[in-house]
Amino acid sequence: MIILKAIEELAELKRPIVLAAGTFDGVHLGHQALIRQAMEEAASCGGTAVVMTFDRHPASLLRPEKAPRLLTRNAQKISLLEEMEVPALLLLPFTSELAAVPAKDFIASLATSCKPLRALCVGSQWSFGKGGEGDVDRLRELGAEWNFDVIQIDPVETGGSPISSTRIRTAIISGDLDQAAACLGRAFILSGNVVTGAGLGSKIGFPTANLDIAGMQLPPNGVYAVKVYRNESILPGVCNIGLRPTVDASATAPVVEVHIFDVSANLVGENLSLEFVKYLRSEQRFSGIEELKEQIARDCVAARKTLSS
Fold it and tell me: Of 66, 74, 238, 302, which sits with the fewest C-beta atoms within 10 Å of its C-beta?
């Protein structure tokens, strides 16, 4: 997959261009339908389908206090698009300068660089331009002016309700990972780079990898049996999400730490992905380290049993 970082780079692709535009957080079944529509349209005219999105959620710049927790970071999003065999990705840096571009000028820059822009595929709620002034109706007006089609994709439903990133976040927050998976079209997976922790796990015989999960949507605090994706390997493990009250009474932010069975290597700097297979128990405060060790041992037994079956 070709990855572009500027609108002007669209001119380097085989033309005509068909754009699929959106935030695409999660690359859920609704996003996939929109992207496949763009790919089919591009195939019909012998052109190139391009997924156009931003390197950050727009709300993280425009309304940081209301910015949603993310379902996917860029690396995971890129991997998912590659699995779909998307030919090209336009990953635009979302800056104050880009946010200030009027809707008309933004579309003009796309149409001018594509030469021609055959079609733009969007969802019904897509907005663009300064202050989100552009909507689908405005896009159709600009499409007529620049001679490109606007293809609006209706929401995909599951369980009688439309799929959306917000719905998936709500399901994850409540611990309904089955509903999240139904909307995603795959199991919910949390990815992050391994960062240096306090090292307590190694001292008590259960070394853990601590994940950088800043800005990511997390399931409820507790202990889970997980599949750990490390490079090309899928490894069994047990994960704790929470404040670790037994060892850090002052903690206010949750930590995600995973003990990978039979792996003792230093994983700092590596990227790991966790698939949450089963919720085992809630987070607890223990009387001390010995009681904590005994419970972790029981958690490992339960996780091994779950993952082996």
Answer: 66
